[in-house]
Amino acid sequence: QVQLVESGGGSVQAGGSLRLSCAASGFPFNRVVMSWLRQAPRKGLELVASVHSDGRSTFIGNSVRGRFTISRDNAASTVYLEMIDLKAEDTALYYCATDWRGGSRGQGTQVTVSA
Q1: Are 35 and 98 spatial neighbours (Cβ–Cβ below 8 Å)?
Q2: Backbone torsion region of residue 103, taken as left when φ is above 0, otherwise alpha when ψ lies between -120 and 50, otherwise beta
Q3: pLDDT tens-digit map of 49-71
Q4: Residue 53 and residue 108: Cα distance in Å, rounded?
Q5: Cα distance from N-terminal residue to C-terminal residue, the chain
Q6: Averaged pLDDT for residues 22-47
Q7: Residues 6 or more apart whose Cβ sits within 8 Å of residue 41
Q8: Beta-bridge mates of residue 22
Q9: pLDDT value, residue 65
Q10: Mean pLDDT over residues 85-102, rounded?
């Protein structure tokens, strides 16, 4: 059974930083792409970043490029999202996700950035 548990969210002021973590289990973590998605109030789901199984290739969305970094630790089955220079528009519920067998995502962790 796929389990994805996000942590690290919180409330920060604009310009601040947060590091999100996602602990994964129930699937071959070191063989799959992992992603972070987010959903802001009254908006659709947005792909923020993805990282290849080897950790070397990454995709960073245009809206966060230069401020967010995705990484993974395959030994710990954990994926991270390092966020700096946070802006009010980064306020959202952040989900960790995998496309293993149809796809799954966690319950999410809330990030709130005050201007």
Answers
A1: yes
A2: left
A3: 999 999 999 999 999 999 999 99
A4: 21
A5: 40
A6: 97
A7: 91, 92
A8: 6, 79
A9: 98
A10: 96
C-alpha distance from residue 19 to each of 52, 75, 110 (Å): 19, 19, 12
Paired tokens of 85: 């220079």
d(CA 73, CA 90): 24
Q: Which two tokens stand for residue 35?
A: 């992603």
Query: Can you tell me the distance from the alpha carbon of 98 to that of 115, in angstroms, rounded to the nearest whole number?
Result: 32
Query: Amino acid identity, residue 20?
Result: L
DSSP for 5-72, please give it.
Answer: EEE--EEEETT--EEEEEEEESS-GGGS-EEEEEE-TTS-EEEEEEE-TTSS-EEE-TTTTTTEEEEE
State which amino acid sits at residue 28.
P
